[in-house]
Amino acid sequence: MKPLSNITVLECGTGLTAPYTSSLLGDLRANVIKIEGPEGDASRSWPPVKEGFSYYYAILNRNKRNVIINLKIIYCHISGFGWDSPYRNRSCLRLHNAGGGWMDEFYWNP
Q1: Which pLDDT tens digit goes with each residue over 3-60?
Q2: Which uninterrupted H or E stretch holds 36?
Q3: Taking 60 as the threshold, does the pLDDT of residue 110 lie above it?
Q4: What are the phi and psi torsion angles at 54 (to 5°)?
Q5: Distance in angstroms (rounded) separating the CA atoms of residues 59 and 57
Q6: Which residue, 45, 72, 75, 71, is CA-closest to 60?
Q7: What are phi and psi of 88, to 5 degrees?
Q8: Cα separation of 109 and 78, whole Å?
Q9: Closest Cα to residue 26, out of 3, 53, 42?
Q10: Which backbone phi and psi does 27 adopt, to 5 degrees?
Q11: Nearest to 20 by CA among 32, 8, 6, 4
Q12: What is the DSSP string of 55-90?
């Protein structure tokens, strides 16, 4: 079954939220195109890195095609907890917020 096979998604995000969300759309067979700036996505160097390759980058950018473009005007703001939540001012940069803690258990507790 390929529920999103007729959909194309352009992802211009960095960090965790946008790349993770678009990877889920790719899992559902959407055609995801990741647009990176000339410096590349910061997650390319996030540990653990083996032979110059970041596992985080691989996980967050599976099922995507990449293109590098010099973007200067595009801006998007995403809230990890929603605009009206009592937690709206909290930082939400780790995948455990989206996954119920499984990433913490997997990566930080050997």
Answers
A1: 899 999 999 888 788 899 999 999 999 999 999 988 888 888 889 999 888 998 999 9
A2: strand 31-36
A3: no
A4: -85, 130
A5: 6
A6: 45
A7: -55, -25
A8: 28
A9: 3
A10: -60, -30
A11: 32
A12: HHHHHHTTTEEEEE----S------SS-SSSTTTTS
